[in-house]
Amino acid sequence: VQLVESGGGLVQPGGSLRLSCAAAGFTFNNYYMTWVRQAPGKGLEWVADINRLGARTWYADSVKGRFTISRDNAKNTVTLQMNSLKPEDTALYYCTRPCVGKSGYDYWGQGTQVAVSS
What we know:
Blueprint: E1 2-6, E2 9-11, E3 17-24, E4 33-38, E5 44-50, E6 57-59, E7 67-72, E8 77-82, E9 91-98, E10 105-108, E11 112-116
């Protein structure tokens, strides 16, 4: 299983970034997918989930209305569109695959860094 994130970078407050995660090594459309982030000096924070078909999504209150998770099962990719970025969104963003039948995540990407600063 491989999860490879891309799209991070430095952006000014109010700006936008689009993160992508390319998945390989498993049947992608059999799994929910999740974005998780870790801000400097802080613990992991769940950001967003998407179900297998992409029809249902869930968001942390901190990003609701600003971030959009989506997936393309034909391309085995999951995307996080981030708008109206704030300095508190600065973090390492991970694409993860939730475990089936239990809590937690069984596979993680290497992470992509997002920095929001003027």
